[in-house]
Amino acid sequence: MSKGTKLIVVVRDPVTRAISDYTQTLSKKPDIPTFESLTFKNRTTGLIDTSWSAIQIGIYAKHLENWLLYFPIGQILFVSGERLISDPAGELGRVQDFLGLKRIITDKHFYFNKTKGFPCLKKAEGSSKPHCLGKTKGRTHPDIDQEVVQRLRDFYRPFNMKFYQMTGQDFGWD
Ligand SMILES: Nc1ncnc2c1ncn2[C@@H]1O[C@H](COP(=O)(O)OS(=O)(=O)O)[C@@H](OP(=O)(O)O)[C@H]1O
What we know:
This protein is an alpha+beta fold. The chain contains seven helices and six strands. Helix 4 runs parallel beside helix 7. The model has no long low-confidence stretch (mean pLDDT 96). The site of 3'-phosphate-adenosine-5'-phosphate sulfate has 12 residues, from helix 1, helix 5 and strand 6. Pfam families: Sulfotransfer_1 (PF00685). Its EC number is 2.8.2.-.
């Protein structure tokens, strides 16, 4: 990869990311154990299984430490997965600026589709019809035991704080 390569990284709340990841696996393998049981190495002691990829991927600060061995931070744009949903044009504005492009994509290109529950394009490329992302994006997540969710929030907090500090952006995942 060229040294000047720019990287665009979309990050979302690591707890929601883990549940989303699990939801995707569940859709392909309905017989897998529950999210709650996969989360812990030992449920009694509350020891989290950081070797489970769904959990491990969300430790963004650790991954960023490795990427920074190869790329300067100025070459990486961190896009908020949450703002990509609440304000897609705003987030894509940042992407266009980062790439040195004219701001072509604006608010005018999106509408909120109530059925999908997500923003969609008013017109797909090369078509006059609206376009939403497919069925595999924006799936309903299973209900997860709130105690487990809280335990994961506590687990990720220090890594999230470190990540905010490293990127200079507060993603508001608390
Ligand atoms: N506009 C719009 N429409 C639908 N979905 C949207 C949109 N913007 C962001 N998202 C979020 O994208 C999540 C899926 O993206 P992934 O990066 O996980 O996709 S991938 O399956 O790994 O390729 C997907 O995660 P889930 O909600 O867990 O399915 C969405 O929350």
